[in-house]
Amino acid sequence: MTAVAHRPPSAGGAELTDLTALCKALGDPLRAQILRVLAGDAYSVAELCHVFGVRQPALSHHLKLLVGTGLVTPRREGTFVFYRRAPRFDDSLDGVRTLLCRNLDGYPLEPAIAQRLGEVERDRAERSLAFFHRHAAEFREHQDLIAAYPQYGDTVVELLDAVRRPQDRIALEVGPGEGELLAALAPRFARVVALDNSEAMLARARDFADANQLANLDFVLGDTATGIARGLRAPLVTLNMVLHHNASPARMLGDLATLLEPGGSLLVTELCAHHQDWARTACGDLWLGFEPEQLDEWAAAAGLAAGDGQFLALRNGFRVQIRQFIRLAVAPGDTQTSLQH
After folding, report:
1. Contacts of 156 (CB under 8 A, 6+ apart)
2. Mean pLDDT for all residues in the chain
3. Domains of the chain (ranges plus CATH)?
4. Cα–Cα distance measured from residue 120 to residue 249, given in angstroms and rounded to the nearest whole number
5. CA 18 – CA 12 distance, rounded (Å)
6. pTM
């Protein structure tokens, strides 16, 4: 039998150059760690410098290489630039990138890096909480600068009625704000739980409920991690103009998936990506909205499938996305008790 020599697959010069650059980009341990950190959330250069303990010029050099190979993508938000793991690319190296990232994500973060990442997230969360503590009384005024609830509330309720199932008796609203959506949830469900990590804002939602005689509401002080620790779960969860105030949107969507029963719906009302940087100081926003594809990516990573949705253009240049995400399967090791019981 005649042996047949193995020939490697042919590749064009440009394609081979790109593959070589990709291998080079991941040939440095620091760049591999940066890519691992950017798997979940977006971070600024200053935040990444803190996480890795390196100076800005050195970090910028590493980010430039990662961006050049399509592994990382930058996004400018006003005067800030945030970097995150790039979505899938429609090119011949997409499979290679996906395989490399999947293997990289199998390695745990070094304890020191994980600790400093936690510090970054805590700093973000504390800034957001401090804003609401100082401006709870003017929350509606600040919110109305961007998107007042009457501008999109009817559309939220329409989608709510479209996705609500007859057997759904409980609803969970995360971040009820002034409480407007509670007025729509209360007559539609036997029990509504309002969860907020700001004591001042939760008090305003409670005052709204009292003024409107909404008697079937429970108010819980805490974040989504608190809800998980308490074993909360509901067949319908709402998140109304909250995600852009959250320190870690990707992690929050993961928590919301845990709080959601299989087959249940998560309704997210959120700003589309914009460039009006004044919203950071005037409204306490941590993020200038999100691309719909970004929400889809985070939701898919959390085990949620995209459902119905509506997009509204407002007169002041902002756009609002009202999205449904469905939890299709039970997460491994999930032992929470339902709010239905």
Report:
1. 181, 184, 238, 240, 267, 269, 322
2. 87
3. 13-109 (1.10.10.10), 136-327 (3.40.50.150)
4. 14
5. 10
6. 0.81
